[in-house]
Write a structure and sequence with these properties.
RNA Polymerase Alpha Subunit, Chain A, domain 2; 5-stranded mixed beta sheet; 336 residues; 4-stranded mixed beta sheet; alpha+beta
């Protein structure tokens, strides 16, 4: 309550002082000075902008109608620098409000034998049409646009990821999906023979814990062109989980009168697998086979368990027990 009264009193006091200042003679003199200062500044700015000045602007350049099998081997010109002269007010309008449309060149209209050469006269009109009638065009740099190209043969190549993608702890990348997964490459014959895949630009990701989608451009070798020039890469991320199955031991290459007896006859196989494949992997995917010749060469009655083949997507496999006792049993043959 006491605080509220103090704040109200302070506010009223400040308000009263501000009114006294605004209604005082000094305040009126200050505002009059400020008014004439801005008026004088405005007249000075208008007088200054009414003079002629020179400045430089950038106009984009676009080459359209390029066939898919054409590879531009020279560094393409992407912009033209123009130097103009006009009053400051007009130039200020260019700087603040007016953007220049690209100068568009047509490949079919300008094409020659492996070379496109466009002189100043062919694109100067496209620039002056965007300028005010009072604006003088003083210079254009460059004054000639030149593109060198070659017509290449094409073939389909698969898309491959270039970079390093690291999953977070207990996670892993279950797949790499490209859309599209192959592209057409155009290049001269001697270059085309060396291209076996379309590699993406470098992609670096760390501690990935969820599925990621990225739109990446393809890194075309010099003298080659990919169509399309980019692809969408999807990186599904899965989390590891642990599973245990019981797998029986099977003897192979045993004579008809002999059989394998293992103790225990089944081994617990514990492994890590992604959640997406947890239900798909079972005991039938593991094969523990023991050959007759291998047992004869051991010189002991203990066999160290090992897998003939590891299922896809399975890692960090452990056995319990790691060794089993075995016996080669003689089987009496019966004759009819």
């Amino acid at each position: 309550m006491f605080r509220g009264r103090n704040i109200s009193y302070i506010c009223k006091r400040i308000n009263r002082k501000m009114k006294d200042f605004l209604l005082s003679d000094k305040s009126r003199e200050f505002f009059v000075f400020l008014f004439f200062f801005f008026v004088a500044g405005g007249f000075w700015l208008l007088q200054t902008l009414n003079n002629d000045y020179e400045t430089e602007f950038v106009v984009p350049v676009r080459l359209k109608g390029v066939p898919e099998n054409v590879v531009v081997t020279s560094e393409p010109v992407s912009e033209i620098h123009i130097r103009v002269q006009d009053k400051g007010t007009v130039l200020l309008n260019y700087m603040l409000g007016k953007s220049f449309f690209p100068v568009t060149l047509n490949f079919e209209e300008s094409g020659q034998s492996n070379r496109i050469k466009v002189g100043r006269a062919q694109f100067e009109k496209k620039i002056t049409s965007q300028l005010n009638t009072s604006t003088r065009l003083l210079a254009i740099t460059p004054d000639t646009l030149e593109y060198i190209y070659s017509t290449g043969k094409g073939k389909q190549v698969p898309v491959r990821l270039r970079g390093n993608v690291g999953a977070g702890q207990q996670y892993y990348l279950s797949d790499t999906i490209f859309t599209p997964d192959s592209v057409t490459v155009y290049a001269p014959a001697e270059v085309l023979d060396t291209i076996t895949a379309a590699y993406t630009q470098w992609l670096f990701l760390e501690n990935v814990t969820d599925t990621i989608e990225r739109h990446v451009y393809l890194d075309a070798p010099k003298g080659a062109k990919f169509v399309p020039t980019s692809t969408k890469v999807t990186l599904p991320v899965d989390i590891y989980t642990e599973k245990t199955v019981e797998v029986p031991l099977h003897g192979i290459n045993f004579p008809a009168d002999k059989a394998l007896r293992a103790f225990p006859s089944k081994v617990q196989v514990t492994f890590q697998v992604g959640m997406g494949r947890f239900r798909q992997i079972d005991a039938s995917d593991f094969h523990i086979v023991v050959s007759y010749e291998e047992l004869l060469q051991l010189g002991t009655e203990k066999y160290k368990v090992k897998l003939r083949k590891i299922p896809e997507g399975v890692s960090k496999i452990r056995f319990n027990p790691e060794q089993v006792d075995f016996l080669i049993e003689q089987i009496p043959l019966s004759y009819d």
